[in-house]
Design brief:
The complex is a heterodimer of chains A (about 325) and B (about 200).
Chain A: H1 14-21, E1 25-30, H2 39-49, E2 57-60, H3 73-81, E3 85-91, H4 97-109, E4 114-118, E5 125-126, E6 129-130, H5 139-151, E7 154-157, E8 160-163, E9 170-175, H6 182-198, E10 202-205, H7 211-223, E11 231-236, H8 240-247, H9 258-266, H10 269-285, E12 290-294, H11 300-313
Chain B: H1 36-49, H2 54-62, H3 75-79, H4 82-91, H5 110-113, H6 141-151, E1 162-163, H7 176-181, E2 191-192
Antiparallel strand pairs in B: 1-2
The chains are: A alpha/beta (about 325), B mainly alpha (about 200).
Chain lengths: ~325, ~200
């Protein structure tokens, strides 16, 4: 594998090693904002780096929700310098195939192996109006390009041919197993298989609160011969306000029931964290490879509380689910 | 478990509340009806466009793409121009010139009806009622493609195997049918990943 030429710091890839060794892995999703001062995210990374047994993998979003934001490239070096492992999200919504390849080379230069390939949300408001939707490559084709870069891409350089320096990405993909209707669900699952065939080495699910559907994903993958691909369950801690936005479609692709919103209206933060801990415990017991934890306004202490409570719950989650 | 009303599950429920994966998938048993456009387009494809048909061989021999676009001004290319009107009237064709309607069983064109113009299956953003993330007043075209494949007696699991390359923008606003016969479009570049093992191919 080609190592980073910018590699002032050679942190190990905790994600790859944990998944290859069958260790349950916790990842924290940090949503980078529009501001170029990510003090909050930096603070989280610092705290995580000081915790011996906690979050070792930091997932950095790529302009989520169709809004302008700091790209993951801005923070990956900071994460690596703190002995943590970044996952850089890479979506096709804002740049064409040339720009995406350029970003992949930039990530390789920065020593970032873990890339999460996404199609990307629909565009929202940007500077002076709505942005142009790009989507030149979808998630499958981003995976295909990442895979091709593993052995180097041949291209013409004047009269001779050249090859890009190979870089061994650890490519991930996303699936939404919570679809309510047969056509939506089957097309999601078919696309998941296509993503795996195109090079996805691990999967992170869309957020959701239906454990039966979440586990059906694992069952489906085993049945279709891709059960060896590790799956991280997305454990998102919503507030009632965020859940309402999801239900209204302002945050795309989320299935939120009226009953969940009623519960969230009554609950305080400790109850919401406890639900997340139950979901983590269930995911661990049901054979998922890890938990991808996120939530608006969550502190590092909240993340640790979820992890510690999940450990305490262990296999007792069955009798305690909503 | 927070169920949605009429939630579709792959399998029936078992005693512990999860699904019993020993059973068959609970897929629909009533085959959807193909639309008239699907049937007519499929018939034309089978008899006149598909590789190996007399018409395809005849036109492929006469439509040879050259280093510039002058071949498009030839008689045979011009004779195919009315096909663009049919595509526009039936699929809302946007003249991407790199058509994949045969792969989609003529059920709908994502270059026109998918906000993200996706060619390898849906994004994850569709709403609970199956409508588009970006346009709540229209169905996700990939749902129509799924139903359209079943309606035409095709197996939609092909979408789990066949990788369609990215759109070739050099074909933008050109005649898709002429491009097909000239061998310029995505047909020969689609990759059945079910048959790819370790080697890496580039699109």
């Amino acid at each position: 594998m080609q190592t980073s030429t910018a590699g002032d710091h050679q942190a190990p890839n905790f994600l790859r090693s944990a998944l290859e060794n069958g260790e349950f892995v916790y990842t924290a999703e940090l949503v980078l904002g529009r501001d170029h001062n990510p003090a909050e995210a930096e603070g989280f990374v610092k705290q995580a780096s000081q915790q011996a047994d906690g979050i070792k993998v930091i997932s950095l979003t790529d302009l989520p929700g169709g809004n302008p934001a700091l790209p993951p490239e801005a923070l990956v070096s900071y994460v690596r310098q703190h002995n943590l492992t970044p996952i850089a999200h890479l979506s096709g919504k804002d740049g064409n195939r040339s720009f995406l390849e350029a970003r992949m080379h930039a990530l390789a230069y920065l020593g970032v192996e873990n890339v999460l390939a996404l199609t990307g949300d629909a565009q929202k408001q940007g500077f002076a109006g709505q942005s142009k939707p790009v989507y030149d490559l979808d998630s499958v084709l981003i995976l295909w390009l990442l895979r091709a870069l593993g052995s180097g891409l041949e291209y013409e350089l004047g009269p001779r041919s050249a090859r890009t320096t190979p870089f061994n990405f650890f490519a991930g993909a996303v699936v939404n197993p919570f679809k309510v209707r047969e056509p939506d669900l089957f097309m999601q699952l078919y696309k998941l298989r296509l993503k795996v065939a195109a090079g996805a080495q691990y999967i992170i699910t869309q957020l959701g609160y239906n454990l039966r559907k979440l586990y059906e994903l694992r069952q489906y993958m085993v049945r279709e011969g891709i059960g060896h691909i590790p799956v991280l369950a997305n454990v998102y801690v919503p507030t009632a306000r965020v859940a309402r936005m999801m239900q209204a479609g302002e945050l795309a692709g989320c299935v939120i029931t009226d009953e969940l919103i009623r519960r969230l209206d009554r609950e305080k933060k400790p109850e919401r964290l406890e639900r997340a801990a139950l979901l983590v415990a269930a995911a661990k017991d049901l054979g998922f490879a890890g938990a991808h934890i996120g939530g608006f306004g969550l502190t590092h202490k909240d993340f640790m509380s979820i992890i510690e409570r999940a450990a305490a719950i262990g296999k007792d989650w069955r009798g305690r689910m909503d | 478990v927070f169920d949605s009303p009429n939630d579709f599950y792959l399998w029936p429920q078992r005693g512990d509340g999860l699904s019993d994966d020993a059973a068959d998938y609970q897929v629909r048993h009533v085959k959807p009806h193909p639309s008239l456009v699907q049937r007519f387009s499929g018939m034309v494809h089978r008899h006149f466009i598909k590789d190996g048909t007399f018409a395809a061989r005849f036109l492929a021999a006469r439509l040879k793409a050259g280093p510039n676009n002058s071949w498009r001004d030839g008689l045979w290319s011009r004779l195919l121009e009315p096909s663009a009107l049919y595509r526009k009237a039936t699929f809302g064709c946007v003249s991407c010139g790199d058509c994949l309607q045969d792969h989609l069983n003529y059920a709908g064109c994502p270059m026109r009806w998918c906000y993200k113009e996706l060619r390898n299956g849906p994004c994850g953003g569709s709403r609970v009622d199956g409508t588009c993330e970006a346009h709540a007043d229209r169905p996700c075209v990939w749902n129509l493609v799924y139903l359209g494949a079943l309606a035409m007696g095709d197996d939609p699991s092909k979408f789990a195997r066949v990788l369609v390359p990215p759109r070739d923008w050099s074909l933008d606003r050109t005649n898709a049918l002429a491009n097909r016969f000239a061998g310029l479009d995505n047909l020969s570049k689609r990759i059945d990943l079910g048959s790819v093992k370790e080697e890496t191919k580039t699109c």
